[in-house]
Amino acid sequence: MTESRKAWGWGLASVDAAGNTLDVWYPQLELGEAPADDKRPNHDFGALVHDQADARGVRRVPVFTVSALDEPIVDAADAYLRLHLMSMRLAKPNTLNLDGIFGKLNNVVWTNYGPFAVEDFALRKLDVLKAAAGSPLPTADVNVLSVDKFPRMIDYVVPSGVRIGDADRVRLGAHLAEGTTVMHAGFVNFNAGTLGTSMVEGRVSQGVVVGNGSDIGGGASIMGTLSGGGKLRNSIGEHSLLGANAGIGISLGDNCVVEAGLYVTAGTKVTIYDKAKVAAGQPLDVVKGAELSGKDNIMFIRNSVSGAIEARSRKKGIELNAALHKN
Ligand SMILES: CC(C)(COP(=O)(O)OP(=O)(O)OC[C@H]1O[C@@H](n2cnc3c(N)ncnc32)[C@H](O)[C@@H]1OP(=O)(O)O)[C@@H](O)C(=O)NCCC(=O)NCCSC(=O)CCC(=O)O
Ligand SMILES: O=C(O)C1=N[C@H](C(=O)O)CCC1
Ligand SMILES: [Mg+2]
Fold first, then answer.
1. Can you give the pTM of this predicted structure?
2. What is the CATH number for 129?
3. pLDDT tens for residues 2-51?
4. Any idea where the 2,3,4,5-tetrahydropyridine-2,6-dicarboxylate N-succinyltransferase middle domain is (predicted)?
């Protein structure tokens, strides 16, 4: 058996009263074997470290984590390290072993004061507000951003060359390549994302990758595999367009277009449009969507006259509006 790939780094963990790790922030990570104990660079977290619980009931402790990237996840610190690697673009989606990730991450109340345990949240919120009330500065209420196992990416990693319309729509573990714009209704899950310049106004599900020069239109959906039965990981190639409110349960290759509002699933019966056959009065072939999965140069439309879903050939890919991607 070949050795597992490794990554390592210092992180700052938030640990609740029960000893659960709520999150770990790694400002910097390295791929490869970790240095020996006496050779480790020491990350200086300074006064951010506190062994006593603060008003949230949270301690902040430095952790040195080494992840065996081809092996299943061992704990929350390991899970956080792998999520950071993808958002830092040190690993592409679908290249790390993420087995067991939901079981290793704790459910957390994410707030403007950082993570809280779910248990006794109301009491801990009261403690924070009482502590803050003694300050001469105006203090913020405790605003809950989400209750989830994954935090928002940009509280941990801000990749260069991207725009993100709404921080809540991109989870830690998303991979956003340089030149990506995620508009307000877009969504990018962990272990998913873009490999080049892209416009994302729809949902990029876990395990989905979108190639350079492609556009996911407003409200568009790309089926994932975590829930609902689908097993095949879908992707989109380069210079393709998934129209507004369209969806796919298959992969698109390069230079493809799916008409706005059309959903193509693996079982959808698709008529292969062939001008010469139509002119000669010959019947057209019909295949399942799955047979066209990942193929290049196809435009999928629902023929608004016949109602049939058709695959028509297309010669070239779409061009993004360059001005929107000089991030
Ligand atoms: C499917 C396409 C690409 C088709 O475009 P075009 O009509 O320009 O294609 P074309 O190649 O020029 O069309 C060739 C011929 O096919 C015909 N044709 C096109 N669609 C047809 C249909 N559904 N049924 C029957 N015929 C059709 C055309 O009229 C034309 O006929 P003739 O030869 O007789 O002329 C488009 O309708 C589309 O859906 N584009 C997606 C755009 C999109 O969604 N972008 C994302 C924006 S996201 C956004 O704005 C956010 C909004 C939001 O948040 O909701
Ligand atoms: O990148 C932007 O900004 C975009 N703006 C458009 C708009 O504001 O309508 C939509 C697509 C991307
Ligand atoms: Mg705009």
1. 0.95
2. 3.30.70.2010
3. 688 999 999 999 999 999 999 999 999 999 999 998 898 888 899 999 99
4. 105-152
